[in-house]
Amino acid sequence: MALSRRTFSALAGSAALGLALGGSGGPGAPSAYAARSVPTGPAPAPPSADGRRHIVGYDRYSLLVDGRRLAVWSGELHPFRLPSPSLWRDVLQKMRAHGYNTVSIYVAWNYHSPAPGRYDFTGVRDLDLFLRTAAETGLYVILRPGPYINAEVDGGGFPGWLTATKGTARTDDPAYLSHVDEWLTQVDRIARRHLFTQGTGTVLLYQIENEYDSHVTEATGRAYMSHLYKKVRADGIDVPLFHNDKGRNGHWTPGSFDTGGERGGWLYGFDGYPSPYRTPPDWGRFGSGGTTGGATASPSTPGFVPEFGGGWFDPWGGAYFDGKGYAESRRTRDAAYERRFHLTNLANGLTLHNVYMTFGGTSWGWLPAPVVYTSYDYGAAIDEARNVTDKIAPMHQLGHLLQRVPDFAKLDRAAEVKAKGLKVYHLANPDTGAHVYVARNDGTDAVTTDLPTDAGDLRITVPGKDAKLLATGLSLGGRTLKYCTAQPVFCLTAGRTDIALFAGRPDDMAELVLSCPAEPAVQRLDPEAGWGFDGRDLHVNAPLGKGGLTRVLVEKGGSDTPLVLLFADDATSVRLFPYDTPSGTLLVYGPKLLRHVELRGSEIHLTGDVTDATSLEVWAPRGLDTLVWNGRALHTRVTLSGSLMTTDLLPEVPEVVLPELSGWRTRTENPEAGPNFDDSSWQVAGRTSSFSTTPVPDGQPVLFADDYGFHYGDVWYRGAFTDSRGLEEISLAYSTGTQGMLMAWLDGEPLGTHRMPVPDKTTTVRKGTWTDTAVLPVRERLRSPGRHVLSVLVRRMQHDQDGKALDTHKAARGLTAAAFRGAAPKVTWRIQGEGAPDPVRGPMNNGGLYGERQGWHLPGFRDHDWEEASFPRADRRQGVTWYRTAFRLSVPADVDASVGLTLEDDPYRAYRAQIFLNGWNLGQYINNVGPQHTFVLPNGILRTRGANTLALAVLSEFTTLSGPGAVRLTLLGRASGGVPVTPV
What gap in Å lies between CA 299 and CA 281, rounded to an integer? Predict the structure, then answer.
């Protein structure tokens, strides 16, 4: 039985805070606060910070919000991978419009904490702003603050300074937990201001830890998880908590660790990243069963996938996708892939889905983990440049289905159904009697066959490696659907009209049968449709994709409410946008995107995006007769279906012209290589012990960069010694992330460059720490008595993640040892890395290059005395060369243009470049490794109507001629509309 609000309020102030959440104290043990029976009914209203308390519970079918079933259709978005807060609203609005009701976010500890005891939640790190924006957009939030997040970010989200601290991470080590508690205190102070249960925000679920599959059977692991649980509860977080099991291990199910006596508020979830080349697995309530069967590990809680593959990441060199980058990820994990896998999940009773990623974004600066390069596009439905791709169709259709058709939140397995060439799942809603069929084709060729249903045999075609969902017995407002061979997408009521949308592949023929006790009045509003009445049923046929949207109006026939049947192919369906307002629901058809709706008197004010010329059609509550699009009133007419339709087309987006990049200036740097460089302010590398997992070589000082407070980017070493006579060879051992590099000079003369190899697909693609020794011969003319200086630049790349809880994030970065052949000089080492963290851009923006320490990357730096330069370049030197230029953009104010920077050169030239736009480190280009050649320049950092400064810091290896070659701006997308963008 659900709690009354009075009872919930009393509990919320007690130590039994979590009891009101519903749930289970262990497998099979129902909570006193889980609803015994919740009938199928309308979903909760879209969430907002409405000032009212809400009850969040669950049973084995779904979440329950204020006694109503909620199916969660969530998309993963990382605010830290989009360092322009204005654009958070852009992506969130795209997600809401395309069917998502929830956004899931990691909160990266390293992004907010530059040093122990220091935390920054301002500017691009304003978590409070993100949570407010999500609530304003009408999205629930799944909050995932770690402390460990993995996420293909540096150290798995652990701050750089944690690598040099005492304590074993991801255990109950008190030293580690003291840092964790400090972090969670900071996050939870913000999170509790946005709890949906309190009516102050839309945070619905909260995750502790991430894919923690170590120490599961050990006391330290259970104590660690219990500590996190109790800490979060003590901080006032009263929404359901969960952990995401890495795979299907049955780890951390309800009752598996101590939660302080609480018998509710804990969900079991598991992650899944199926291969597009394999058969979709049955991981839900009707799957293989047992503790390793997915959702069956926790039969009393709803099926929950906190991460389900919406793409996949790509490593340096592009091994996963044959060097073709994320375009190939999106091709292999396309709309059909998403449909086949997500429909399988739906058929297995999973009602909490989170698609990882829905928008991947950019691992800018020194944010990426060793296993990825700058782009984190992920092959997601919304690409890195914020373009909605063709992959959105199944996400859009399933999301709106789960929100608008309540039958799908409560389904039981029904009688087995077989169809030749297909795997069929048959489910039924025990309350409404609706039946659901998922027909999956795991072969490569299309299958046409008869599908037995409770409404008779249906002739269907399912393309290869695809799936189709069909339903019988659904309520379409005041009428009942007997069957349809196209997928239902939504049914809603706008004003006094019921509207139902059915969608499928282009050129499919939709056959729909509607039960009618009396003959209806039917109007074919578009010529493509056909209909007939046989005395009991209305039969409607419509080819999908012919002429866009096909409309059929049904009146009478046993109901006083008109019904508009809509038929669309995938491309058309994603231009239909339901929107709930306080006065009722609207349906908008035509634009590329619907962002927001406000009703003002008799006017409907809509904001959104247009790319191609299009009409605009709106079904709305009664009394509304005027359309205003992006502030401009439109001429309209009333259609036979009761909609308002524009009489003129909205114009297509205007062209955007980008300037050529010219006026380059250049300057070489690395004075640190010279023998007379003043390094007196550098730290002496004289430590003898370290908390690193890398052993300190006997008889040598600690040279690990992190031990001296240098955690990100490049690091310089200068070793002073006397007498190089007899010195034949210097061996420099070093440890880096993927694609690390070392350059060395003796008395300013280059000794050589060494780089780590490119990962291969089978053995090293996930390798996070690379170690090697650069063996560098010393030329005869460098052997002499007197003072000498060995200068070494290490591009350390990033810290390893700690996925197995082995403190692998503490592996050394930088030099680890130096050895000499032919002589045994006593070396005094000094070290220098990045300067103080940038107060705006954060600790992960800058490394330790001389130009970075001098501000050469900043827009205000005066470079008038630098040499003029033009591209392509063909230089040969070992070291660092900077290039700077300025350019202006004049994108129209009502156009959202996404712009990238493209670099291309002879693929055999060995060099790399850091890209700085207006001082922001937006990525690293490695010419002869790739696969990335185009880097997104986010609006807000990019001034689309103003002046910009671009700087490239190029590291050349001397082994080949180096560039840059071609450097140009690239238009990645454009639309009339967008959101207002504030510069950052």
Answer: 18
pLDDT of 34 reads 53
* Interhelix angle 174-191/127-137, nearest 10 degrees: 40
Cis ω on the peptide bond leading into residue 357 (within 30° of 0)? yes
Q: 795, 714 in Cβ contact below 8 A?
A: yes
Token pair for residue 251?
A: 């780890």
pLDDT value for 906:
96
Q: Give kind and range of the element (H or E) at residue 895.
A: strand 895-904
> Which of 4, 329, 326, 153 has the alpha carbon at shortest distance from 768?
153
For residue 463, is the peptide bond before it cis, meaning its omega torsion is within 30 degrees of 0? Answer: no
Whether residue 728 contacts residue 777, with contact meaning beta carbons closer than 8 Å, is answered with yes
Q: Which helix or strand (DSSP H or E) is residue 205 part of?
A: strand 203-207
Please state, in angstroms and rounded to a whole number, the distance separating the CA atoms of residues 777 and 797: 25
Q: What are the residue ranges in the chain where pLDDT is below 70?
A: 1-36
Q: Which of 590, 565, 560 is nearest to 575 (CA)?
A: 590
Average confidence score pLDDT of the chain: 95
How many helices (H) and strands (E) are present in the chain, helices listed first?
11, 56
Would you state the pLDDT for residue 547?
86
pLDDT at 36: 61
Contact 268, 254 (CB under 8 A): yes
Dist. CA 781–CA 870, nearest whole Å: 36
Three-class SS of residue 385? Answer: coil
Closest CA to 801 of 788, 789, 810, 814: 810
SS3 content of the chain, % helix, strand, coil (to 5): 15, 35, 45
DSSP-assigned beta bridge partners for residue 241: 206, 266
Cα dihedral 599, 94, 138, 399 sign: positive
Phi, psi of 499, rounded to the nearest 5 degrees:
-130, 130
Neighbour-count burial of 851, counting CB atoms closer than 10 A to its CB (0-12 exposed, 13-18 middle, 19+ buried): buried
Cis peptide bond prior to 872, omega within 30° of 0: yes
The rounded Cα 456 to chain-centroid distance in angstroms is 42
Cα–Cα distance measured from residue 625 to residue 644, given in angstroms and rounded to the nearest whole number:
7
> What pLDDT is stored for residue 16 in this prediction?
32
User: What confidence score (pLDDT) does residue 546 get?
Assistant: 87
Q: Amino acid letter at 495?
A: G
Amino acid (one-letter) located at 248: R
Cα separation, 814 vs 160, whole angstroms: 14
Listed residue (105, 74, 76) closest to 357, CA to CA: 76
Radius of gyration of the chain (CA): 30
Return the active site residues. Answer: 211, 307
529: which 2 tokens? 């449709």
Q: How far is CA 898 from CA 97, 330, 937, 938, in A?
A: 20, 19, 7, 7
Instruction: Give the pLDDT of residue 4.
Output: 32
Dist CA 242 CA 23 (whole Å) = 11
> What is the spatial distance between Cα 299 and Cα 287, in angstroms, rounded to a whole number?
12
